[in-house]
Amino acid sequence: MELDNLIEFKSLPEIKEKLKDYGFLKTFAEGDIILNENAFIKAIPIVTRGNIKVMRTDEDGREILLYYIKAGESCIMSFLGGIHNDTSKVKAVAEEPTEILFIPIDKVTLLIKEYPEWLDYIFRLYHKRFEELLEVVNAVAFTKMDERLLNFIKKKCELTNAHTLYITHEQLANELGTARVVVSRLLKQMEENKLVILGRNKIHLIE
User: Fold this and answer.
1) DSSP letter at 71?
2) Which residues make beta-bridge pairs with 47?
Protein backbone atom coordinates (compact mmCIF):
# COMPACT_ATOMS: atom_id res chain seq x y z
CA MET A 1 0.00 0.00 0.00
CA GLU A 2 1.50 3.30 -1.16
CA LEU A 3 0.74 6.48 0.81
CA ASP A 4 3.93 8.43 0.14
CA ASN A 5 2.14 11.13 -1.88
CA LEU A 6 -0.76 11.52 0.50
CA ILE A 7 0.28 14.31 2.85
CA GLU A 8 3.35 16.52 3.09
CA PHE A 9 4.12 17.63 6.64
CA LYS A 10 6.22 16.65 9.62
CA SER A 11 3.66 14.30 11.17
CA LEU A 12 3.45 12.25 7.96
CA PRO A 13 4.83 8.93 9.30
CA GLU A 14 2.52 8.94 12.34
CA ILE A 15 -0.60 9.83 10.37
CA LYS A 16 0.24 7.25 7.71
CA GLU A 17 0.35 4.59 10.40
CA LYS A 18 -2.97 5.82 11.81
CA LEU A 19 -4.55 5.61 8.36
CA LYS A 20 -3.31 2.05 7.94
CA ASP A 21 -4.63 1.12 11.40
CA TYR A 22 -8.02 2.75 10.93
CA GLY A 23 -8.65 1.87 7.29
CA PHE A 24 -9.39 -1.21 5.22
CA LEU A 25 -8.19 -1.94 1.68
CA LYS A 26 -10.32 -2.90 -1.30
CA THR A 27 -9.37 -3.43 -4.93
CA PHE A 28 -11.53 -2.64 -7.96
CA ALA A 29 -11.31 -3.63 -11.60
CA GLU A 30 -11.61 -1.12 -14.43
CA GLY A 31 -15.23 -0.02 -14.75
CA ASP A 32 -16.29 -1.11 -11.25
CA ILE A 33 -18.68 1.28 -9.53
CA ILE A 34 -17.12 2.34 -6.23
CA LEU A 35 -19.91 4.63 -5.10
CA ASN A 36 -23.37 5.20 -6.53
CA GLU A 37 -25.47 8.31 -6.32
CA ASN A 38 -27.89 8.39 -3.37
CA ALA A 39 -25.87 5.79 -1.46
CA PHE A 40 -25.04 6.53 2.18
CA ILE A 41 -21.35 7.20 2.80
CA LYS A 42 -19.84 5.17 5.63
CA ALA A 43 -16.16 5.69 4.78
CA ILE A 44 -14.09 8.07 2.70
CA PRO A 45 -11.82 6.64 0.00
CA ILE A 46 -8.12 7.34 -0.33
CA VAL A 47 -6.75 6.10 -3.63
CA THR A 48 -3.48 4.25 -3.11
CA ARG A 49 -3.13 2.95 -6.67
CA GLY A 50 -4.99 3.72 -9.90
CA ASN A 51 -7.53 6.41 -10.76
CA ILE A 52 -11.21 7.11 -10.12
CA LYS A 53 -13.51 9.22 -12.25
CA VAL A 54 -16.29 11.09 -10.47
CA MET A 55 -19.44 11.73 -12.47
CA ARG A 56 -22.87 13.31 -12.14
CA THR A 57 -25.98 11.72 -13.71
CA ASP A 58 -29.24 13.43 -14.64
CA GLU A 59 -32.77 12.00 -14.59
CA ASP A 60 -32.42 10.73 -18.17
CA GLY A 61 -29.28 8.78 -17.35
CA ARG A 62 -26.90 11.19 -19.08
CA GLU A 63 -23.56 11.60 -17.36
CA ILE A 64 -20.89 14.27 -17.20
CA LEU A 65 -17.37 13.93 -15.84
CA LEU A 66 -16.62 16.20 -12.88
CA TYR A 67 -13.03 15.29 -11.97
CA TYR A 68 -10.53 12.48 -11.44
CA ILE A 69 -9.13 11.23 -8.15
CA LYS A 70 -5.53 10.10 -8.48
CA ALA A 71 -3.27 8.07 -6.19
CA GLY A 72 -2.67 9.93 -2.93
CA GLU A 73 -5.98 11.80 -3.15
CA SER A 74 -9.44 11.45 -1.62
CA CYS A 75 -12.98 12.50 -2.54
CA ILE A 76 -14.04 15.70 -0.82
CA MET A 77 -17.70 15.07 -1.68
CA SER A 78 -17.55 11.74 0.15
CA PHE A 79 -15.95 13.49 3.11
CA LEU A 80 -18.64 16.18 3.30
CA GLY A 81 -21.49 13.72 2.76
CA GLY A 82 -20.10 11.31 5.34
CA ILE A 83 -19.62 13.76 8.19
CA HIS A 84 -23.14 15.15 7.61
CA ASN A 85 -24.69 11.66 7.36
CA ASP A 86 -25.88 12.51 3.87
CA THR A 87 -26.12 10.46 0.69
CA SER A 88 -23.72 10.69 -2.23
CA LYS A 89 -24.49 13.25 -4.93
CA VAL A 90 -22.02 11.70 -7.39
CA LYS A 91 -21.01 8.36 -8.89
CA ALA A 92 -17.42 7.14 -8.62
CA VAL A 93 -16.06 4.58 -11.11
CA ALA A 94 -12.64 2.93 -11.32
CA GLU A 95 -10.86 4.23 -14.41
CA GLU A 96 -8.32 1.39 -14.25
CA PRO A 97 -7.40 -1.37 -11.76
CA THR A 98 -7.53 0.59 -8.52
CA GLU A 99 -6.72 0.05 -4.85
CA ILE A 100 -8.48 2.15 -2.23
CA LEU A 101 -7.96 2.60 1.48
CA PHE A 102 -11.34 3.31 3.09
CA ILE A 103 -11.35 5.30 6.34
CA PRO A 104 -14.56 4.95 8.42
CA ILE A 105 -16.28 8.26 9.03
CA ASP A 106 -15.91 8.09 12.81
CA LYS A 107 -12.16 7.66 12.38
CA VAL A 108 -12.05 10.61 9.96
CA THR A 109 -13.51 12.95 12.57
CA LEU A 110 -11.14 11.49 15.18
CA LEU A 111 -8.17 12.27 12.94
CA ILE A 112 -9.36 15.87 12.61
CA LYS A 113 -9.30 16.24 16.39
CA GLU A 114 -5.91 14.57 16.75
CA TYR A 115 -4.06 16.08 13.79
CA PRO A 116 -4.64 19.63 12.53
CA GLU A 117 -2.50 18.70 9.51
CA TRP A 118 -5.17 16.21 8.46
CA LEU A 119 -7.76 18.99 8.35
CA ASP A 120 -5.33 21.05 6.28
CA TYR A 121 -5.11 18.13 3.84
CA ILE A 122 -8.92 18.07 3.58
CA PHE A 123 -9.08 21.82 2.95
CA ARG A 124 -6.42 21.61 0.23
CA LEU A 125 -8.40 18.83 -1.45
CA TYR A 126 -11.55 20.94 -1.21
CA HIS A 127 -9.75 23.85 -2.87
CA LYS A 128 -8.45 21.65 -5.70
CA ARG A 129 -11.86 20.05 -6.37
CA PHE A 130 -13.58 23.44 -6.30
CA GLU A 131 -11.19 24.73 -8.97
CA GLU A 132 -11.78 21.60 -11.07
CA LEU A 133 -15.55 22.02 -10.82
CA LEU A 134 -15.20 25.64 -11.89
CA GLU A 135 -13.29 24.43 -14.93
CA VAL A 136 -16.18 22.09 -15.78
CA VAL A 137 -18.71 24.92 -15.44
CA ASN A 138 -16.58 27.24 -17.56
CA ALA A 139 -16.08 24.56 -20.20
CA VAL A 140 -19.79 23.77 -20.44
CA ALA A 141 -20.84 27.42 -20.45
CA PHE A 142 -18.13 29.11 -22.48
CA THR A 143 -16.05 26.57 -24.44
CA LYS A 144 -16.99 25.10 -27.79
CA MET A 145 -17.41 21.34 -27.90
CA ASP A 146 -14.43 20.78 -30.20
CA GLU A 147 -12.13 22.52 -27.70
CA ARG A 148 -13.67 20.60 -24.80
CA LEU A 149 -13.16 17.31 -26.62
CA LEU A 150 -9.52 18.01 -27.46
CA ASN A 151 -8.79 19.23 -23.92
CA PHE A 152 -10.45 16.12 -22.54
CA ILE A 153 -8.31 13.84 -24.73
CA LYS A 154 -5.14 15.67 -23.67
CA LYS A 155 -6.07 15.44 -20.00
CA LYS A 156 -6.91 11.75 -20.31
CA CYS A 157 -3.57 11.08 -22.03
CA GLU A 158 -1.75 12.99 -19.30
CA LEU A 159 -3.55 10.99 -16.63
CA THR A 160 -2.63 7.65 -18.20
CA ASN A 161 0.85 8.83 -19.24
CA ALA A 162 0.18 7.64 -22.80
CA HIS A 163 -0.60 9.09 -26.22
CA THR A 164 -3.24 6.50 -27.13
CA LEU A 165 -6.65 6.25 -25.50
CA TYR A 166 -8.68 3.06 -25.70
CA ILE A 167 -12.17 4.47 -25.52
CA THR A 168 -15.34 4.42 -27.60
CA HIS A 169 -17.09 7.46 -29.05
CA GLU A 170 -20.06 6.58 -26.85
CA GLN A 171 -17.92 6.67 -23.72
CA LEU A 172 -16.45 10.02 -24.72
CA ALA A 173 -19.92 11.41 -25.33
CA ASN A 174 -21.13 10.21 -21.94
CA GLU A 175 -18.23 11.77 -20.06
CA LEU A 176 -18.63 15.08 -21.88
CA GLY A 177 -22.43 15.12 -21.60
CA THR A 178 -23.10 15.24 -25.34
CA ALA A 179 -24.27 12.98 -28.20
CA ARG A 180 -22.16 10.26 -29.81
CA VAL A 181 -22.76 11.64 -33.31
CA VAL A 182 -21.33 14.99 -32.20
CA VAL A 183 -18.18 13.35 -30.83
CA SER A 184 -17.73 11.23 -33.97
CA ARG A 185 -18.06 14.27 -36.23
CA LEU A 186 -15.58 16.33 -34.21
CA LEU A 187 -13.07 13.49 -34.00
CA LYS A 188 -13.20 13.13 -37.78
CA GLN A 189 -12.47 16.86 -38.12
CA MET A 190 -9.56 16.51 -35.67
CA GLU A 191 -8.16 13.65 -37.70
CA GLU A 192 -8.41 15.74 -40.90
CA ASN A 193 -6.57 18.54 -39.06
CA LYS A 194 -3.87 16.01 -38.04
CA LEU A 195 -4.53 16.40 -34.32
CA VAL A 196 -5.41 12.75 -33.73
CA ILE A 197 -5.29 9.38 -35.47
CA LEU A 198 -8.46 7.32 -35.11
CA GLY A 199 -8.64 3.54 -34.83
CA ARG A 200 -11.21 1.02 -33.70
CA ASN A 201 -12.15 2.13 -30.17
CA LYS A 202 -8.90 4.05 -29.84
CA ILE A 203 -7.60 7.57 -30.35
CA HIS A 204 -3.93 8.47 -30.76
CA LEU A 205 -3.02 12.03 -29.83
CA ILE A 206 -0.43 13.55 -32.19
CA GLU A 207 2.16 15.62 -30.36
Assistant:
1) T
2) 100
Q: Give the pTM.
A: 0.72
Q: What is the Cα–Cα distance from 67 to 206, expressed in whole angstroms?
A: 24
Q: What is the pLDDT of residues 31-59, one digit of tens each?
A: 999 999 888 888 989 999 999 999 888 77
Domains in the chain with CATH codes: 12-141 (2.60.120.10), 144-205 (1.10.10.10)
CA 16/CA 93 separation, integer angstroms: 25
The helix/strand/coil state of 160 is: helix
End-to-end CA distance of the chain: 34
Residue 55 sits at φ, ψ, to 5 deg, of -130, 160
* 102 CB-near residues (< 8 Å, 6+ apart): 23, 24, 25, 26, 43, 44, 45, 46
The alpha-carbon radius of gyration of the chain (Å, integer) is 18
- CA dist 112 and 3 (Å) reads 18
Distance in angstroms (rounded) separating the CA atoms of residues 131 and 46? 20
Strand pairing report for 196-199 and 202-205 = antiparallel
